[in-house]
Amino acid sequence: MNTPAFDHNLYAGCAAQIITHTRELAAKGFTPATAGNFSIRMGPDHAAITISGKDKGRLTEADIMVVNMGNEPVATHHRPSAEAALHTHLYRKFPDVGAVLHTHSPTQTIAGLLYAETGHVPLRGYELFKALRGHATHETKVDLPVVPNSQDMDTLTASVDAVLTQPNQWGYLIAGHGLYAWGRDISEARRHLDAFEFMLGCELEMRRLGAR
């Protein structure tokens, strides 16, 4: 796939935003053992994304690469993580998505395993629904999809694509793996991620107490 050259000033700004958020999320324990991937859309043709195998709490601009929407590297010797394909899938599927955050907190990982069989986490009655774009009341329901993990990215992407059928979903879990959350920009994606993390934590606590 041939794509135009990217704007290096735009890239530098995106890299700076990614680094800020990854350091904060790493400090929360959301990126153990170099886990996680984070990206920002750079217009219709490119995305800035973290390279694999790096401590997310210590990233520099050199650890952020550019891929095109076919998940191919642009002007770099780095290879994108295999999971970068899940980022570009979201950018292709939803033109208004501007950033994607993928984390591996214990809460997210455990919830993905516990709800793998049902295929979703049923979230009900949370005031924090209002943190999710398009949701204005607690008097609704949000089913956070859970897809089975796979090392085959085509299989995993197809599983994800099949469950993204409703507007304003903003996230999904991969069983035993972690959470993908997104938004129109990285601040909104971060708000969605933080909201899902909180609600998942509440669900796990209620299960522990026998209320679920």
Explain how this protein is built.
This protein has 212 residues and is of the alpha+beta class. The chain has a single domain, classed as 3-Layer(aba) Sandwich (L-fuculose-1-phosphate Aldolase), CATH 3.40.225. The protein is built from 5 helices and 8 strands; from the N terminus they run αβββαβαββαββα. The chain has helices spanning 8-27, 84-93, 106-114, 153-163, 186-208; strands spanning 37-42, 46-50, 64-68, 99-103, 120-124, 141-147, 171-174, 178-183. Strands 3-2-1-4-8-7-6-5 form an 8-stranded mixed beta sheet, with helices on both faces. The termini are far apart.
Any idea what the CATH architecture is? Answer: 3-Layer(aba) Sandwich
- Helix content estimate: 25-40%
How many domains? The number is 1
Element-level helix/strand string: HEEEHEHEEHEEH
Relevant terms:
20% strand; alpha+beta; 5 helices; L-fuculose-1-phosphate Aldolase; 212 residues; single chain; eight-stranded mixed sheet; 8 strands
Brief characterization of the structure:
With 212 residues, the protein is of the alpha+beta class. The chain contains five helices and eight strands; from the N terminus they run αβββαβαββαββα. α3 crosses α5 (186-208).
Provide the fold topology.
Elements: H1 8-27, E1 37-42, E2 46-50, E3 64-68, H2 84-93, E4 99-103, H3 106-114, E5 120-124, E6 141-147, H4 153-163, E7 171-174, E8 178-183, H5 186-208
Parallel strand pairs: 6-7
Antiparallel strand pairs: 1-2, 1-4, 2-3, 4-8, 5-6, 7-8
Helix pairs in contact: 3-5
Catalytic activity: 5-(methylsulfanyl)-D-ribulose 1-phosphate = 5-methylsulfanyl-2,3-dioxopentyl phosphate + H2O
Binding site for Zn(2+): 102, 104
Domain Class II aldolase/adducin N-terminal: 16-204
